[in-house]
Amino acid sequence: MTKARHAEIAGAGLGGLAVGIALAQRGWRVRIHERSDELRMFGAGIWLWENGLRSLAALGVEQTATRRAKRIETLVARDPEGKALMHRTFGEADRLLLPPRADLYDALIARARDLDIEIIPGSVIVGGHPRGELEDEDGKVWKADLVVAADGVFSRVRESMLLTQRVDYLDEGYTRLLIPRRPEDPQTEITEYWNGSRRLLYDPCTDEVNYVCLCCNVDDEVGRRVPVDKDSWLESFPHLGGIIERIGEVGRWDRAMRVTCRAWSRGRAVVVGDAAHAQPPNLGQGANLTFQNALSLAVYLDRDDDVASALCSWERGERPLTDHVQRWTDRYGRVASAWPERFASRRSQVLEFATRVPWVDKQLNKAARHIPVGAV
């Protein structure tokens, strides 16, 4: 009888749990280290595109994670005059659902426990080694056939193995929160409203709440205040008072960041999720790429008994799409936020024209329409 292979994972966020589940489903013994003393998910809603939904289905959590989620039918971007600059529709084979992030996290936690994955809260991992080792803050070494860095943008494991190429602080940031839902609110359409360098994104979420994202430049001190300065945002979007007035005191402004790795693996150590490819959320693909890469990683390891070889093959197969999305989410952000106020009308013309070009549509939605390796 073949002995089960063992994995040690740093980080019990979305990426660490997804990798752990994908491996455990294939017979691996998995232990996950979480630096926090409790398992909690911060954030509001989360966009789950077709590629992410297929991956979550393969991980056994799609139905549970999306049980309360609104099914999105259209996505529209509008200029200050209300003109639609971009319009995208969704069908049965091209889905977008928007559950609360906490629902998704709870579904992953439950699935991990069903698979007898060991999760250790309060376990702070400070480094890793390509020979298959994680080291915690007390100096204890955790050995495994595979070690995974899923410890976020500022990954200490990634940095300890010199896999970081760049960590970029970008010029925009986001306040993401949930507001109470009203019966008259749109149920199936996401709308992104633009005015100057500010954007307000309205997302139907559940029967009880909607997800709202406020985007502004890092130099916009009033725009990034928490609690939100409602008067300032109402001045930018006077027709959205019904949304802005429902914003509460809770929220967090996060600066957009981008992580680029020299490589995603070294020896028997691998980097996943934000630790490997953090990006601004303009295309809503960060978590979806994490899920599809976590799933495909387990598939590649199934195909090749040599862990180091499997990791190299996985990166060659999966990284090009992730790099593509990073480039295009940056481009979308620059078009949306980096134009001087006096050229706002020109920006509207550029976006309206570009998004009607089939090639541009294909680039923007390449990941969403991708069928992940190992997906149902």
Structural class: alpha/beta
Number of strands: 19
Estimate the mean pLDDT confidence. Answer: 93
CATH superfamily of the domain at 6-67 and 102-168 and 258-341: FAD/NAD(P)-binding domain
The radius of gyration computed from the alpha-carbon positions, rounded to a whole number of angstroms, is: 21 Å
How much helix, percentage-wise, in residues? 25-40%
CATH topology of the domain at 6-67 and 102-168 and 258-341: FAD/NAD(P)-binding domain
Biggest sheet: strand arrangement: 6-5-14-15-16-13-17
Distance between the termini: 29 Å
Runs in which pLDDT lies below 50 for 5 or more consecutive residues are none
Tell me the overall shape.
globular
Our estimate of the beta-strand percent is 25-35%
Determine and state the CATH class of the domain at 6-67 and 102-168 and 258-341: Alpha Beta
Largest sheet: 7 strands, mixed
Determine the number of helices (DSSP H or I, runs of at least 4 residues).
12
CATH architecture label of the domain at 6-67 and 102-168 and 258-341: 3-Layer(bba) Sandwich
Protein name: FAD-dependent monooxygenase
Keywords: Monooxygenase, Oxidoreductase
Domain FAD-binding: 9-301
GO molecular function: monooxygenase activity
